[in-house]
Amino acid sequence: MITIYWYCYEAPHDEEFVKDSLNEMAEHLKKEPIKLKVTIKSLRDEPELEKEAIAQLNKFHDPLYKHADYSSYITFILLRRSLTTNTRRSSLFVYCNPESYIAVSLIKQAHSPSWGVTVNPVAFVYKLENKYKHGKWIIWHESLHLLGVDECYDVNTLTRNTDCDCETCIMQYEPSEKWQGEFSLCNQNIHQLQGLAKSVDKKSKI
To answer: In terms of CB atoms within 10 Å, which end of the chain has fewer, N or C?
Structure first.
């Protein structure tokens, strides 16, 4: 089983939006042609896990605390959690305000875009002023990185890769002008997710 835990850090009014966006993504993933089952779960449903994860988030107050340290610690506690559950792959999605010390620190350390960054197994998305326009796109984009999906743009020019055959692909640097809110991926992304689905299915039969 693959699980993505989500948490809104100091953004309680956005919890429904984040939860609904992630659940919508999960619905798309479980259908053809990908057929990958992903469980979306609030971090609050796991009190002990939440306590440890948030304690580490609070350390971003310290300018010397590195995002790589947080990623390493979350890897450890999620792996430990998987030993007591039937979870084969877990990750964490954190949604926070762009003015928060977390976002400010990540933008500075990881040279993150102004909307978010993924440092596996943790994805961070910073609240947008107009979340209903592109917020869902950004949530999907960063969450798909948690599932191993690659970028579909050139890191130098920020233009769409030539092997990306979907003009509205979610994994571009920013939403295409033609994007209308649909869950759209290029064939390359779909193949990556299909590979993950087959791997999970194979392990579940062992």
So the answer is: C
